[in-house]
Amino acid sequence: MLNQDELIIGGKTFTSRLITGTGKYKTLRDMVECLAESESEMVTVAIRRLNLLSISKDENLISAINWEKFWLLPNTAGAKTADEAIRLAFLGRELSKRIGQEENNFVKLEVISDPKYLFPDPIGTLRAAEFLVKKGFIVLPYTNTDPMLAKHLEDIGCSTIMPLGSPIGSGQGIQNKNNIQIIIENSKIPVIVDAGLGSPSEAAFAMELGAEAVLINTAIAKATDSIAMANAMKLGVKAGRQAYLAGQILPYKFAQSSSPIKGSDFLNVKQE
Predict the structure, then answer these.
(1) What does the pLDDT look like over 33-75, one tens digit per residue?
(2) pLDDT tier for residue 2 given thresholds of 50, 70 and 90
(3) Which of 13, 107, 126, 151 is most exposed by smallest CB count within 10 Å?
(4) Number of domains composing the chain
(5) Is the sign of the CA dihedral 93, 44, 15, 195 positive or negative?
(6) In CATH, what number is assigned to the domain containing residue 28?
(7) Where is the major localization of this protein (predicted)?
(8) Is residue 196 a known part of a binding site?
């Protein structure tokens, strides 16, 4: 049943398949309203951006979010090496405990050494992921669309695979459909398309491919009407997931009549 369709990551159950980010919004108020409108349940926050000594609503987005409603996904954005990402992951886990999520060991792992294209570093990601899994983290690694890397990350115990749709913040949509499909087909853990999605139709397309969820930030935060876009993305994700579960028709090379041919001979019957 569709109403029983749940997303499970690291033993934690979610009903929403839209994960939202907290960067690039015009104001904290816009961010909070967009989170509510999106109906997302998991929210990612870049640990490097935070002043962990401050809990003032005027100074820190952490205090602006109701953490009884949202699940924190700390991310290691800004880490250029595996060692930097590991340090940020531990800070993120400490933050989760400070906001009352004692059992939260989630981390979105990003290791990005390329300053121009912001592609994830596969070797650094694998190294950091292996260490963090051993330390009890629920690791959600951000990766390029390499099926073999995805398999290695799964084999060492990562809880999801998060291949990019296209470069971060680019709004180019899904640029490597075939590889993402291969990752989805071969994965026994949830695949979450992360980065580059710019429209609700692209979010729906990712879900139609069989992705378990999508993570969207820039497309919502930078939209002319961010709140309306948050709602649109929510609907796109739901539509794409429902289409995937419904079972889409396979494409045909030639046209297929929508009306049956059988029984149409009466048109040739002569009138008496």
Answers:
(1) 999 999 999 999 999 877 555 554 455 788 889 999 999 999 9
(2) very low
(3) 13
(4) 1
(5) negative
(6) 3.20.20.70
(7) cytoplasm
(8) yes
